[in-house]
Amino acid sequence: MPYLQRRDLKLYYEAYGEGPPFLFISETACHGEVWKPFQVPEFSRDHRVIIYDQRGTGRTDKPSAEYSTKTLADDAAALLEHLGAEQAVVYGHSMGGRVAQLIALDYPRMVKKLILASSGAAHTSRGIPLKMCVELVEKGYEKYARDHALRIGFTEKFISEQPQRVEEFLKIRLANLPPLESYLLHVMARQAHDTADRLKDIRMPTLVMVGDDEAKTTSDISHWASAEILVRAIPHAKLVVVPDSGHYYFFAKPEATHRAIRDFLEEP
User: Fold this and answer.
1) Which of 88, 114, 226, 231 could pair with 239 in a Cys bridge, judged by C-beta atoms 3.0 to 4.6 Å apart?
2) What is the Rg, in whole angstroms, of the alpha carbon atoms belonging to the chain?
3) Residue 122 carries which DSSP code?
4) What's the pLDDT at 36?
5) Is the four-CA dihedral 268, 19, 120, 76 of positive or negative sign?
6) How many CB atoms lie within 10 A of CB 263?
7) CA-to-CA distance for 246 and 2, rounded, in angstroms?
8) Using CA atoms, how far apart are residues 103 and 109, in angstroms rounded to an integer?
């Protein structure tokens, strides 16, 4: 199995297809398997698609130490360097978008185009959110993870009309959950992330995506509000709203997601 040996961990990755590099970065404490149903087959037709398990997730090592989005961005940039994948399209979903911002800012030669999907620049509170702590105690880790994915991931209409597809996604997303410690280390890294004052320095073409059902929030700021901040602050950023969609439109609405990405990639 392919691994990149970093100083403090072995980083698991997979690559598919040939062509310009296209890196996908998953959300908080999520492995790279979520990209296999739709994004890998779609974009490996004409790109070299790279997916990987961030530190603390999947088959990558899980060091018991403080994480930061800077550390996660350094990991991703090292992977691109290892694969000779400069000038990549970088797609970051949710917390993965926060990591992607730092790759674009700290390693600009590695990024040709940037896609920030349901992401943001900063939270207003740090540490582990109190609501999360209460729910973890009341429900337990596995049930909390499932309920949270359902609550933010899909519209009520999609859940009622497509229950099998919802379960298909949850089976992938919740497989091989990281240890609770690793999950909380990711959460704390996410809450501490703050690129608000640096967004103006992102110079490559940027697409910001968000589902139209993401105005609701389970934390201090909604994905919708965060997307608006990104679009206002990043020079020449473009916003695409995916209709009838929650957080996981890349799975629930792959055709609309891919069409928006393809349109963006075709722009000069």
Assistant:
1) 231
2) 17
3) B
4) 98
5) negative
6) 12
7) 33
8) 9
Tell me the domain boundaries of the chain: 3-266
Domain 3-266's class?
A: alpha beta
Residue 41, pLDDT score: 98
Question: Six-digit token pair at 248?
Answer: 């996981």
Q: Is 238 left (phi over 0), alpha (psi -120 to 50) or beta?
A: beta
- Which parts of the chain have pLDDT scores under 70? 216-220
Report the interhelical angle of 141-153 vs 130-139 (nearest 10°): 120
**Cα separation, 2 vs 14, whole angstroms:** 7
Nearest to 149 by CA among 262, 41, 251: 251
Centre a 10 Å sphere on the Cβ of residue 126 and count the other Cβ atoms it contains. Answer: 13
Strands (DSSP E) contained in 79-131 are 88-93, 111-117
Burial of 178 per CB tally in 10 Å (0-12, 13-18, 19+): buried
Backbone angles phi, psi at 66, to 5 degrees: -65, 135
Which tokens sit at 24?
A: 């996908």
C-alpha pair distances (Å), 84 with each of 73, 151, 240: 16, 39, 30
pLDDT tens-digit series, residues 90-135: 999 999 999 999 999 999 999 999 999 999 999 888 999 999 999 9
Query: What pLDDT does residue 8 have?
Result: 83
Q: Which residue has the tokens 């990405």?
A: 261
Residue type at 118 in one-letter notation: S
Per residue in 182-195, pLDDT tens?
999 999 999 999 99
